């Protein structure tokens, strides 16, 4: 089965992202707005049981933290993806590194760029128009992050939560 690990921001942040996603992101119906901490990977039940124990440990030793989103950015020229740029944060980077070492599969495809996708698979002209107008918009979003989720992919391509891991809690 295919799994992934993500952080779902607050409803306020999700509502802001969805105001763009419903129009510009074909994956809108497959997963809520999120920050990917670990790209999709294949795992069987035994491996997931081991990883859940590891994820509980990681969550227990992580304190809640605040993220800042101040602008949109894009992955052009690699892809016509537009996203809310999450400002660099040590805790986010540490989570990413922990989930790509030890018992976790090391499936890094790209450098870690914390973001919330709001548009993807756009045609060049549409990308230019949308990105040009969003680039002028001022985003001042602050959000407290206190958990991450282990997700799995259903047959229809959508993602659902397998487990949530709250930071700083004794859940072992």
TrEMBL record:
Residue interval(s) of motif HXTX 1: 34-37
Q: What is its EC number?
A: 3.1.-.-
Q: Does the keyword Ligase apply?
A: yes
Q: Does the keyword Membrane apply?
A: no
Q: Show the Gene3D superfamilies listed in the entry.
A: Cyclic phosphodiesterase (3.90.1140.10)
One Pfam family, short name please?
2_5_RNA_ligase2
InterPro entries to which the protein is assigned, alphabetical: 2H_phosphoesterase_YjcG-like (IPR050580), Cyclic_Pdiesterase (IPR009097), YjcG (IPR022932)
Q: Belongs to which family?
A: Belongs to the 2H phosphoesterase superfamily. YjcG family.
Query: What name is this protein filed under?
Result: Putative phosphoesterase SAMN05216389_106105
What organism does the record attribute this protein to? Oceanobacillus limi
């Amino acid at each position: 089965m295919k799994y992934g690990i993500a952080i779902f921001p607050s409803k306020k942040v999700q509502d802001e992202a969805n105001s763009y996603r419903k129009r510009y992101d074909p994956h809108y119906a497959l997963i809520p707005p999120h920050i990917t901490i670990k790209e999709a990977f294949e795992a069987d039940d035994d491996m997931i049981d081991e990883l859940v124990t590891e994820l509980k440990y990681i969550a227990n030793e992580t304190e809640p933290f605040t993220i800042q989103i101040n602008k949109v950015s894009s992955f052009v020229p690699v892809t016509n993806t537009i996203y809310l740029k999450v400002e660099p944060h040590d805790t986010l980077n540490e989570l990413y590194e922990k989930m790509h070492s030890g018992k976790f599969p090391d499936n890094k495809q790209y450098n870690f760029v914390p973001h919330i996708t709001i548009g993807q698979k756009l045609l060049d002209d549409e990308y230019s128009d949308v990105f040009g107008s969003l680039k002028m918009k001022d985003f001042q979003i602050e959000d407290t992050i206190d958990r991450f989720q282990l997700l799995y992919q259903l047959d229809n391509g959508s993602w659902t939560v397998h487990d949530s891991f709250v930071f700083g809690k004794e859940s072992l």
